[in-house]
Design brief:
18 strands, single chain, 11 helices, six-stranded antiparallel β-sheet, binds flavin mononucleotide, seven-stranded antiparallel β-sheet, 30% strand, 34% helix, elongated, alpha+beta
Length: 399
């Protein structure tokens, strides 16, 4: 038998974590009332059911955990299986902080340990045994009472949160699919005309959940070599999709998503300035650069894969590096700059953003004036598409 040599040293901590991060885990919160009478708790992903007779459960805890030192001062603890709505609870309980319970609602389990509101299940235990397990402790608990209110549980995988859902629930909701297909169909002729008039590739993009998806495309760029862009998608993360962020009333926190925690004060201000600029302009501009190209290549790959959290994290990193190319200030457009994409919103009569209409450029060097000319063309096309969508709705209503 031949074995493939391991690509990296398996004892390297990063490699150890990355490889074992491929195992999805449920997330629990282990809680207790400490010897001072205060609630203590921590997020635990290593919880496991051990034995039915006697009823035993276990988890592993880092030796240095301050929260566990407090939990250990009690004789009982409660394991709360977190539901998919409890990401914030999980974040709060995994911070090294003594005030983890501020804002968390709970009542007392039969042992007195905190039972968190909204959990999928709770398991009330007394300490049976605590033994050494490398740099962790192996904690065995004897179960005294337990119950469940089945809701979809929180799942942790490759450093990201998700939820377990039967595959039938994972599909995009039908109304989203139908309305986007309809808008794409109605936009098609206008996209073709715009592509002809501007000799660029034109695309229509829809936001579906946390993704931006190209739903229609017309190709006219002389050097276009790629296959159709329809179906390409990227995660909806700052600095991508600023027009959608505004349509959803997102602030910097919401737009940046999980990356918000890592933003410096200066970066926060820069993102806020981008949103402000796009709000005033009502158009969006992406310049071309090596970093922007790298980001684009990554989200093309993302479209073709199963879109794992590790992939999304990589896009977050690259988006961060390329953020200077998105929504540049007016003074950055005084000299000609290589342009990648110009977008305008297509609004329906209720003021809802239904599509983004964009021209994709092969790094054409443009002044601000040329960009504005392009914006005007795009806006006229967007108005015509909006009128078609409106007429179609009236037609559907009266038939
Ligand atoms: C999803 C998730 C699972 C975790 N699982 C464990 C675990 O099984 N064991 C552990 O010791 N820490 C685990 N942690 C980390 C602890 O929650 C965190 O280190 C601890 O609460 C930090 O604060 P402390 O020093 O006050 O204990 C996990 C964190 C998260 C986000």
């Amino acid at each position: 038998m031949t074995t493939t040599p391991l690509p990296q040293n398996p004892l390297d901590p990063r490699c150890f974590r990355d490889v074992l991060g491929n195992l999805p885990t449920g997330v629990t919160a282990v809680t207790a009332i400490d010897s001072e009478g205060a609630p203590a708790g921590m997020a635990i992903g290593s919880f496991v059911s051990v034995s039915l007779d006697p009823p035993l459960v276990a988890f592993y805890v880092g030796r240095g955990s301050r929260s566990f030192a407090r939990i250990r001062t009690a004789s009982s603890f409660c394991v709360n299986v977190l539901s998919s709505d409890q990401q914030e609870v999980c974040r709060a309980l995994s911070r090294p902080d003594d005030e983890k319970f501020a804002g968390i609602q709970w009542d007392a389990a039969p042992s007195g340990a905190p039972r968190l509101a909204g959990s999928t299940a709770w398991v009330d235990c007394e300490f049976e045994q605590v033994t050494d397990a490398g740099d962790h402790l192996h904690v065995l608990g004897r179960v005294h009472s337990l119950d469940a209110t089945p809701t979809l549980p929180l799942v942790f995988y490759q450093g990201g949160y998700g939820k377990f859902a039967p595959s039938s629930l994972v599909a995009i909701p039908e109304p989203d699919v139908i309305s986007n297909l309809l808008h794409a169909e109605l936009a098609r002729a206008e996209l073709e005309a715009l592509a002809d008039a501007t000799a660029t590739d034109c695309i229509a993009t829809a936001a579906v959940g946390d993704q931006l998806i190209i739903v229609a495309a017309a190709r006219k760029s002389p050097s276009a070599t790629v296959r159709t862009r329809v179906g390409q998608r990227s995660p909806f993360v700052a600095p991508l999709g600023a027009l959608y962020a505004l349509a959803r009333d997102a602030d910097v926190e919401t737009w940046a998503g999980p990356a918000a925690l890592r933003l410096s004060a200066a970066e926060r201000l820069a993102f806020a300035a981008k949103l402000d600029r796009v709000r005033k302009r009502n158009w969006s501009l992406t310049l071309a650069s090596a970093a922007q190209r790298e980001l684009e290549t990554e989200y093309l790959a993302y479209s073709a894969t199963d879109r794992s959290p590790a992939h999304i994290e990589r896009i977050h990193e690259l988006a961060h590096a390329a953020s200077g190319d998105y929504e540049p200030a007016d003074n950055a457009l005084e000299g000609p700059r290589p342009v990648r994409m110009i977008s305008v919103p297509v609004m329906d009569t209720d003021g809802e953003l239904i599509l983004l209409l964009s021209t994709v450029h092969n790094e054409t060097r443009m002044h601000r004036g040329a960009v504005l000319d392009h914006v005007q063309r795009l806006q006229s096309s967007a108005e015509r598409i909006a009128a078609l969508v409106h007429a179609n709705r009236i037609g559907a209503g009266s038939s």
